[in-house]
């Protein structure tokens, strides 16, 4: 594949709230995302930042087709999303939500599950599980546990491992470090950078922690009230100004309380 191949492209995408009410109303509700256009090339790492309610999760949900845009177009690997059977799209695009569930399975089974779905046999699954449990330093004694026996941070590490081990073409991560300590969060950033370089995975990560976003990204998308406020190469970002701008937006969201 050509290194500068565009893997993801959004053209004037809008999302209105009525769409989320499962067609109960034909009227447009309030805008959640407006006029969103950007693209990502193979192996690129995009940090999506913005204050609370800016539309970051809504954007990731559209990219995994959990919601449909009200209008505008999304292309994956040059095909319009609607042309791709959802089952095919899900093989290439993995979404890790903020609070991932381990489906009531033991850790061992939850890690193997996406590989079983892809038709891998036990012999093929074993070395992949060994590789990723080692990379994410998942101890053997977690493997027999269920999610109820894990802490929030441990659960997040397992959910991350499950998303990474299939090495999707496009990986969508919604605040993957929210329950991790600083050491694990930094380690994850290193793993993501290596993974995108080695296997050309394109990664979009929502993260409120700018120090982590800075370590991770090659490109930054700053959302503000559902619109793209900035779309910049990482080298062009003034991280101090960005920090100030996000603080100011958060203060304005306090409604004076
Ligand atoms: N199912 C829904 N129905 C209607 N409105 C929604 C729905 N989900 C989100 N919204 C609205 O869309 C806007 C964007 O929400 P979203 O969760 O995408 O923000 P976010 O940037 O991810 O915020 P946070 O940083 O708090 O996670 C908010 O105003 C929210 O109230």
TrEMBL record:
Q: What is one GO cellular-component annotation here?
A: plasma membrane
Q: Where is the ABC transporter domain?
A: 8-250
The UniProt entry, under Pfam families, shows: ABC_tran
Q: Which SUPFAM superfamilies match?
A: P-loop containing nucleoside triphosphate hydrolases
SMART domains in the cross-refs: AAA
Keywords assigned by UniProt, alphabetized: ATP-binding, Nucleotide-binding
State a single Gene Ontology molecular function.
Answer: ATP binding
Q: What is this protein called?
A: Cobalt ABC transporter
Query: What is the organism of origin for this protein?
Result: Mastigocoleus testarum BC008
């Amino acid at each position: 594949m050509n290194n500068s191949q565009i893997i993801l492209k959004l053209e004037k995408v809008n999302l209105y709230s009525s769409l989320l009410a499962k067609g109960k109303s034909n009227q447009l509700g309030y805008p959640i995302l407006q006029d969103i256009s950007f693209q990502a090339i193979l192996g690129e790492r995009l940090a999506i930042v913005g204050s609370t309610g800016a539309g970051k999760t809504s954007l990731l949900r559209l990219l995994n087709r959990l919601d449909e845009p009200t209008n505008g177009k999304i292309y994956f690997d040059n095909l319009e999303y609607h042309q791709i059977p959802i089952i095919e799209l899900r093989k290439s695009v993995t979404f890790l939500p903020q609070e991932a569930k381990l489906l009531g399975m033991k850790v061992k089974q939850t890690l193997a599950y996406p590989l079983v779905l892809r038709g891998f046999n036990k012999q093929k699954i074993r070395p992949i599980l060994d590789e990723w449990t080692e990379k994410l330093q998942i101890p053997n004694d977690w493997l027999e546990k269920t999610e109820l026996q894990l802490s929030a941070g441990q659960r997040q590490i397992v959910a991350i491992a499950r998303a990474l081990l299939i090495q999707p073409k496009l990986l969508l991560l919604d605040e993957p470090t929210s329950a991790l300590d600083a050491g694990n969060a930094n380690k994850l950033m290193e793993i993501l950078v290596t993974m995108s370089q080695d296997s050309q995975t394109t990664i979009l990560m929502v993260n409120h922690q700018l120090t982590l976003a800075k370590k991770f990204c090659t490109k930054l998308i700053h959302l503000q009230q559902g619109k793209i406020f900035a779309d910049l190469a990482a080298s062009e970002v003034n991280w101090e100004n960005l920090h100030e701008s996000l603080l100011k937006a958060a203060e304005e969201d306090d409604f004076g309380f």
